Amino acid sequence: MITSSSLLIRYFIELKELLYLSCPILVAQLAIIGMSFTDTSMAGHYSTEDLAAIAIGTSIWMPVYLLIRGTLIATTLMVARLYGAGKSQQIGSLVRQANWIAVALGLIGFIFLQHTEWILILLEISPLLIEKTTDYLVALSWGVPAICMYEVLVCYCEGCSKTKPSMIISLLALLVNIPLNYLLIYGNFGFPELGGVGCGYATSICFCLMFMLMLAFVSFSNYHKKSDIFTKLEMPDAKAIIILIKLGIPIGLAFFFEAGIFCAIALVIGKLGTTIVAGHQIALNFSSITFMVPLSLSMGLTVRTSQAIGAGNPEKAAFIGYSGILTALFGACISATAILIFSEQIASFYTVNPAVRALAVELLFFAALFQFFDAIQIASIGALRGYKDTRIPMIMILVACWVIALPFGYLLGLTDVITESMGPHGLWIGLLTAMLVAAPQLAVRFRIVSRREIEKTKIAV
After folding, report:
1. For residue range 5-58, what is the model confidence (pLDDT) as tens digits?
2. Hey, where are the domains in the chain?
3. What is the pLDDT of residues 116-160, one digit of tens each?
């Protein structure tokens, strides 16, 4: 008989395992976001125009990065299943095929970021911001191929439950990024004064450094030598690549749709003036930092559930999923409370402009409420990935973000159709409404899929 005390003990045991896996992922993600944070903060202290350019540039780059990162998460899924099933000898070939996908995505991302001016013209961004934003994205583009190949190696390590290397490397990159920004933004010690564009070059250098460090670690680590990733050159295998793409594209698109809605809203807000863009960017940037907590738990859940399914234990996979969703909700309570209490201090850290600071404080209230629903949906999606259930969650996110959030937010924020135009506040209400719809749907989806997997195993026995 299962008692509440035994369930609680199981939960804390699983929580320990999940946190051991997820905490290094969290630190690594925070370091990556920290690079964006320092870019935004240091550019904001250089000029409001450069802050706005970084905001708009980030709104274009982040969906591209998350589409790439999400697509490559299929590598984590497959590696974790092989690892859980005790088939480590098959992992090397899988990673080599994933690297071909990364090379292709890196080239596509590079070309795209080199030619973004048409998007900004289409969105009627001011000419000054167009010039600064395109220069920033061109500078950033040089590091895209490196970050793509780095992500494949990160996905491989995560699938094998080795998450500390990416944490250490990301922290080193953050430490390098800060002085590089100092040199290239302000033109110190004889370096050119590039303003916000310097952030792009600094980030590109850090991306290249991250890839080289991870490549060195995987190449020379005794643990990873048994996977034989770099012992031979393997030509593209269409069958293996198609399997990875079929799994990865829905994950990447789900990331893209959710990140894209934030970025689309930022681009729409770009027409409302520099002050509103800057205030919105502060709220968005800080909420992106807090989002890393449930996102890291979600990635840990993907690994843990994948390994449990690979080991033929769907009951354990289900318990892992429920435990992770509950943990993400607890984390949301903490982050939301912190945002509400310290909103003034958060805004002041980014800017000295009183108008920007006041708007940021108002929008941080919506960011705090957003934490709860976002935590449930991202944790549910992470658990579902372990079951290779990626297509239906992608559709749910698509509907929530682009059928509900954007139209409803646009009507509230920029028109008088429903009520008097609410500006950026109305757009944030649209985002909240979308997550209010998506979160329970995804939680129910996990319940259905996990039960189905358990029943399938019982029938097979």
Report:
1. 777 888 888 888 888 888 998 898 888 878 887 887 788 778 878 888 888 888
2. 4-460
3. 888 888 877 778 888 888 999 999 999 999 999 999 999 999 888
Read off the pLDDT of residues 265-306 as tens digits, 9 standing for 90 and up.
Answer: 877 887 777 788 888 878 887 887 788 888 889 999 999 999
Location of structure tokens 């609410």 = 422
Cα dihedral 72, 74, 80, 83 sign: negative
Amino acid symbol at 41? S
**For residues 62 and 291, is the Cβ–Cβ distance under 8 A?**
no
Cα separation, 429 vs 176, in Å, equals 38
Kindly report the pTM of this predicted structure: 0.85
Query: Are the C-beta atoms of 427 and 410 separated by less than 8 Å?
Result: yes
